[in-house]
Amino acid sequence: MSRKVKVTDTEIRTNGVNWFQEWFGLDYLRLYPHRDEAEAQRQVVFLVDLLPKAASLEVLDIGCGDGRHLAALSRAGLAATGLDLSAPLLQRAAARPENLRLVRSDMRLLPFATGRFGALTSFFTSFGYFPSDEDHVALATEFRRVTRTNGFLFIDFLNESVVRRELPRTTYSEDEHARYEQRRSLSADGLRVEKHITIVEKQTGRERCYVESVRLYTKHDLELILMRSGYTIAELWGDFTGQPPSSVAPRLLILAQAHEHSLPR
Q: 16-160+217-258 has which CATH code?
């Protein structure tokens, strides 16, 4: 007997089509095959070991995609819900055997009650997508709204200094189905890293093009955004082995705790 998983849809209040509305689909999964189940499992184990009374937390995984981290959170015994904007990725998540709880929504308008979650997670650079710094303060404030007081927000972000120093301009790859070209650059104002992706199907020659654009925030920038939004920085790391943040660490991992008496209305 087949199992149906309900995907709830809410209004997306944006004008036109943004890059993140087009890109996060099945082509996205094909471009990142190395972002696999084993990686997600290791990353979730790292996080769960840090959270106090993790087994009792209700967790929201923001930008859950096809559910690889969400499934690992569920296997760890947490009451986890996944939220994403991409219908194709959510359908992939719904096909998993863990009976995942899934919601389709823009992350800026979370369809949940104030203070519902003990922890929010944002894996694999699911932050920095929007045009302005105030957009990201508003986003983090919305995260804070649904985080209970003394609850946690975990953000897995890129290391801005490494991106600026080591950005590979153009790379090529292929699989049995298609060839992939990725052209990377900094925006004209130097505030964003942008990627232009071209996919050419081998059998038909059909070409599809996409864009990624992520704001380059320093550690200090993100600390200020989170503090303005009602969080206190609890811990920082440079990768999922627990090394400290540095100019050469591959990632910037932030664990922030929601302020007492600062719940946005």
A: 3.40.50.150
Burial class (CB in 10 A: 0-12, 13-18, 19+), 176: exposed
Looking at the DSSP assignment, which residues form a beta bridge with residue 200? Answer: 179, 207
**Contact at 8 Å (CB) between 67 and 102?**
yes
Cross-strand pairs, 254:
155, 236
For 14, the token pair is 């944006």
pLDDT tens digits, one per residue of 117-132:
999 999 999 999 999 9
pTM of the shown model = 0.90
Residues of the chain with CATH 2.20.25: 163-213
The 10s digit of each residue's pLDDT in 56-87 is 789 999 999 999 999 999 999 999 999 999 99
Provide the CATH topology of domain 163-213. N-terminal domain of TfIIb (2.20.25)
CB-based contact 190:175 (threshold 8 Å): no
Residue ranges, CATH 3.40.50.150, the chain: 16-160+217-258
Give the number of residues written for the chain.
265
Cα–Cα distance between 59 and 82 in angstroms, integer? 9
